[in-house]
């Protein structure tokens, strides 16, 4: 029987995309608070448009944060430093509208439902900062245990920014997007594997007067696409396709001069699929950036990724998806669901894997913050090129696989791997 196939596409954006500028500003404000006040509460939203940045939200802290300076420094680091780029860190307007956190929310975080009813466990004292459901996902299809389309899209976006900053292609500007289509095959067990990279799209802001087909496309092929594909994905594409029609697209409208905040308004939290799994797994709807770790929109999504990644790294399943749900002010999750899509190892069941997850992972908000060490100024670096699958920093504690050996042994699969 012929293998079943399907195509899947994911996108990424560069740090100069207006939505990502907003995310980075919000997380830079959060980092500034946590640097001096690890108990600070932050829910910071940013809007950015032509010549203007608006930072709004709620903040409760005992430290002073110069929001306007943070905004300008962040935009400068990204590369919007000249008016001809459509935005200038030095001359843009900055408005700040930040109030204290609601006392109604604070009381549920400071003293959970359980604590109010006599529970003395200190971890149970911290309630969830909001209601909602969060998802985590992992798959064996890449070394990072992430879906291939989003990982490749991130690598291309990051490379696009790198050649701009290194002045390799001096006509590039900070705004850009990438998109990758991958063909998969599914075997009789339902295990899906990427077998071919079918299409690559790069859209990049550039200096006026340049032709996309005759100049920009060959340059991006040489300096962005080929280095990534040849380095990591030789077995998933035919090199002869690189120059063929229908494989590599650049600026399909023919021109991308007006970009960044001048081309499109940016908002915090508007790239949540880029931030997570590229659409390969569900999303609960809550954004990450600008939120301190008492907000389970962020911390529980990190914890769910941590669980799913360890399950896959342990060999308990080829794919794993975790859903965890909370009520505001309550420490214990409302529900925890583990789904391995029928890819669990021989001798295991989805129910047994779920039991192991509940045994080895504490998903109460206080335990998540403690175990993943989340009260640190680590968040701006998460705000571009994805929150998951990152190997560029030890600060991404949710990417550790330190429970994989214990899970494997408890599941009766094998002795722990030698270190």
Strand runs, count? 13
Query: What is the string of SSEs from the N terminus onward?
Result: EHEEHEEEHHEHEEHEHEHHEEHHH
How far is it from the N-terminal to the C-terminal residue, by CA? 41 Å
Mean pLDDT: 92
Largest sheet data:
4 strands, mixed
Spatial arrangement of strands, main beta sheet: 1-8-9-10
Shape: flat
Rg from alpha-carbon coordinates: 22 Å
| Low-confidence sequence ranges | none
Strand content: 15-25%
Helix-residue proportion: 25-40%
Give the class from helix and strand content and strand pairing: alpha+beta
Q: What is the tally of helical segments?
A: 12
Structural notes for this entry:
This protein has a 4-stranded mixed beta sheet with strand order 1-8-9-10, with helices on one face. It is an alpha+beta fold and 419 residues long. The chain is built from 12 helices and 13 strands. A hairpin with a 2-residue loop joins β2 and β3 (52-60).
Question: How would you summarize this macromolecular structure in one to three sentences?
Answer:
With 419 residues, this protein is α+β, with helices and mostly antiparallel strands.
Task: Note the main attributes of this structure.
four-stranded mixed sheet, 23% strand, alpha+beta, 419 residues
List the SSEs and their pairings:
Layout: E1 4-13, H1 18-36, E2 41-49, E3 52-60, H2 67-78, E4 81-82, E5 87-88, E6 93-99, H3 103-110, H4 113-116, E7 132-139, H5 148-165, E8 172-186, E9 192-206, H6 212-232, E10 248-250, H7 260-263, E11 266-267, H8 272-275, H9 296-313, E12 319-326, E13 335-339, H10 350-360, H11 365-371, H12 404-410
Parallel strand pairs: 3-6, 9-10
Antiparallel strand pairs: 1-8, 2-3, 2-11, 4-5, 7-12, 8-9, 12-13
Helix pairs in contact: 1-2, 5-6
């Amino acid at each position: 029987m012929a293998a079943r196939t399907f195509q899947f596409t994911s996108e990424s954006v560069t740090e100069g995309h207006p939505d990502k500028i907003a995310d980075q500003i919000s997380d830079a404000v959060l980092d500034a608070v946590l640097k001096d006040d690890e108990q600070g509460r932050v829910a910071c939203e940013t809007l950015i448009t032509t010549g203007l940045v608006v930072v709004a939200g709620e903040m409760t802290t005992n430290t002073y944060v110069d929001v306007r300076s943070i905004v300008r420094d962040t935009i400068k680091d990204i590369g919007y430093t000249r008016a001809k780029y459509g935005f200038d860190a030095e001359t843009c307007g900055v408005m700040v509208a930040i109030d204290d956190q609601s006392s109604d929310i604070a009381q549920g975080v400071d003293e959970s439902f359980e604590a109010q009813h006599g529970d003395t466990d200190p971890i149970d004292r911290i309630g969830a900062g909001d209601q909602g459901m969060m998802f985590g996902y992992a798959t064996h299809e890449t070394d990072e245990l992430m879906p291939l389309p989003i990982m490749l899209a991130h690598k291309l976006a990051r490379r696009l920014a790198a050649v701009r900053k290194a002045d390799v292609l001096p006509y590039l500007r900070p705004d850009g997007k990438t998109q990758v289509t991958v063909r998969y095959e599914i075997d009789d067990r339902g295990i899906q594997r990427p077998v071919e990279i079918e299409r690559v799209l790069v859209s990049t802001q550039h200096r006026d007067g340049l032709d996309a087909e005759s100049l920009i496309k060959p340059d991006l092929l040489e300096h962005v696409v080929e280095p990534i594909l040849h380095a990591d994905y030789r077995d998933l594409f035919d090199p002869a396709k690189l120059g063929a029609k229908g494989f590599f697209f650049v600026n399909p409208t023919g021109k991308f001069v007006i970009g960044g905040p001048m081309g499109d308004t940016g908002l915090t939290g508007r790239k949540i699929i880029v931030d997570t799994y590229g659409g390969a797994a569900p999303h609960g709807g809550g954004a990450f950036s600008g939120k301190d770790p008492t907000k389970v929109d962020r911390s529980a999504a990190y914890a769910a990724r941590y669980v799913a990644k360890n399950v896959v790294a342990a060999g308990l399943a080829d794919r794993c998806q975790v859903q965890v749900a909370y009520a505001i002010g309550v420490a214990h999750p409302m529900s925890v669901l583990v789904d391995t899509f029928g890819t669990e190892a021989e001798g295991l069941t989805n129910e047994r894997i779920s039991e192991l997850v509940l045994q080895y992972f504490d998903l109460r908000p206080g335990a998540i913050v403690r175990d993943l060490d989340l009260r640190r100024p680590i968040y701006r670096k998460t705000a571009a090129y994805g929150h998951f699958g990152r190997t560029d920093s030890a600060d991404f504690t949710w990417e550790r696989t330190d429970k994989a050996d214990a899970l494997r042994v408890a599941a009766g699969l094998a002795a722990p791997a030698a270190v």
